[in-house]
Structures are given as structure tokens and as C-alpha cells.
Write a structure and sequence with these properties.
This protein has about 250 residues and is an alpha/beta fold. The chain contains eleven helices and eight strands. It has a single domain, classed as Aldolase class I (TIM Barrel), CATH 3.20.20. The structure holds 2-phosphoglycolic acid.
Length: about 250
């Protein structure tokens, strides 16, 4: 039985004072026998978030795959380890579209994180055009094969995959429960091909894209959806608390 994992993704939002206030309000309610709640926060908020987190897990939103060096503006995995970070979002579609992340760099980041004991939350998902042309399965399979290349089967218990159709991110146009479940099942089948049945059974798969308090429960009821990655609705304390209360 896989534990659920529901994670907010703040993107480039919130300063330290806002982070502190969020954790003061939300952390105490973020407990459940079913699994974990957390938030991905900007690098500059990580220490404040970790200081305020007794229950919530705290994720970075990116990392570099080299330990150190001439990479102006980047943050390495050892730097995250030193802060006590245990989760890191990688390959978000915004990074793939705007900042040049590829399956190859995402794969390097995943390996570096796993070696450091940090759980990658690795995002994949198709564009609207790909979806309209019936290419979802091919695109998602190719992203998974590239991003997960050469990762040992035993590591999959420490990997979270986030299926996020790009047409559903920040659009208010969430994927139907049926599409979300079918695609998360597809992700699990591809993991089974790549790394075997045990890895497929252990890997946790999130759906992301316009998840809100009013639709979280139906997504979480699906057999292959183990959690959610939530942008907009994770920014306001009251809506994230509502999501927590409905999924406890
Ligand atoms: P959204 O973002 O919930 O605002 O659609 C999801 C994400 O980008 O992870």
C-alpha cells in the first residue's frame, strides 16, 4: 500500500514573512495517517520553511546536477542537503519550457538527488497540442524513459512522479478524473516496463493541474493517483488547509 503525498508548489511566490505565516497557520493541521503533506518553496524561503515545519515536508523547486562550480545562479544538491531539504521538484513543465530543462538534465538531477537521500518529485506531461493529436502516451513514455534512465529499481520507492498535463496547469481546466487516472496508470505501466513490477508498485504518482479543494477528493479516490502537486490552490492558507482536511 502506497502512502499518499500531497505537495503544494509555490513557484516564484512568497517572501520569508509570508512563508513564516503560512507555516504558523498550516503546519499544525498537516498530519494524517494516510501520508504526507508538504510545499515546494523558493530557495530563499527554504530555511524559514524548514524552521517552521514539524509536520509539513519542504521541497526545493529545482537543483543543479553538479556539486559546485561556475554555474552562476544555480543551487547544488549538497547545498540542499546542508539545509536539511529532503524533497526536490525537478523537470516541472515551466522549467522545461522556459529554462531549458531536458529529460537528460532531469535524469542527472534525479540521480544526484537520490544519491544524496533527497526524494525527487519528477514532473512529466504533454502539451495541449500533443494531447489534441493523441500523442499523450508516446510523449509521457519518452519523457519517463529519458528522465528515469539507469535508475536502479530499488530507488523507485524514493521517487515521486508528477503527471501534469501542461494544458491543465494554472488554467483552471483540470483533467477529468478519468483522464488523470488513465494517465497515472500509464505512467505506472511505463515504470513497470523500465524497472519492473516492484518498482511500479512502490513509486508514488501524483496528478497535477488545477487541483483545488473541490476536486481533490475525487482524484485521490483513484487507484493509481497517490497524491497531487498543487500550484495556485497551495498559496492561500485556507484553501491548502481545506485540501488537507478533505484528504486526511
Ligand atoms: P496549478 O499548478 O495547480 O496552479 O494548476 C500545478 C503545478 O504547476 O504544479
Amino acid at each position: 500500500m502506497r502512502n499518499q503525498i500531497i505537495v503544494g508548489n509555490w513557484k516564484m511566490n512568497k517572501n520569508n514573512a509570508e512563508t513564516k505565516a503560512f507555516f504558523e497557520t498550516v503546519d499544525a493541521v498537516a498530519t494524517s495517517d494516510k501520508g504526507l503533506y508538504g510545499v515546494g518553496v523558493p530557495f530563499t524561503d527554504l530555511r524559514t520553511a524548514l524552521d517552521g515545519a514539524k509536520n509539513l515536508i519542504v521541497a526545493a523547486e529545482n537543483c543543479h546536477f553538479e556539486d559546485s562550480g561556475a554555474f552562476t545562479g544555480e543551487v547544488s544538491v549538497p547545498m540542499l542537503v546542508e539545509l536539511g531539504v529532503k524533497y526536490c521538484i525537478i523537470g516541472h513543465s515551466e522549467r522545461r519550457q522556459m529554462f531549458g530543462d531536458t529529460d537528460e538534465t532531469v535524469n542527472k538531477k534525479a540521480k544526484k538527488l537520490l544519491a544524496a537521500g533527497i526524494t525527487p518529485i519528477l514532473c512529466i506531461g504533454e502539451t495541449e497540442e500533443e494531447y489534441d493529436n493523441g500523442k499523450t502516451a508516446d510523449v509521457v513514455a519518452a519523457q519517463l524513459k529519458g528522465s528515469l534512465a539507469d535508475i536502479p529499481a530499488a530507488d523507485y520507492a524514493n521517487i515521486v512522479l508528477a503527471y501534469e498535463p501542461i494544458w491543465a496547469i494554472g488554467t483552471g481546466k483540470s483533467a477529468s478524473v478519468e483522464i488523470a487516472e488513465n494517465c497515472c496508470k500509464l505512467v505506472r505501466d511505463v515504470v513497470c516496463d523500465i524497472a519492473g513490477a516492484d518498482a511500479a508498485d512502490k513509486v508514488r504518482i501524483q496528478y497535477g493541474g488545477s487541483v483545488k479543494p473541490n476536486n481533490i477528493v475525487e482524484y485521490m479516490a483513484q487507484p493509481d493517483i497517490d497524491g497531487a502537486l498543487i500550484g495556485g490552490a497551495s498559496l492561500k492558507e485556507d484553501s491548502f488547509i481545506e485540501i488537507i482536511e478533505k484528504t486526511k
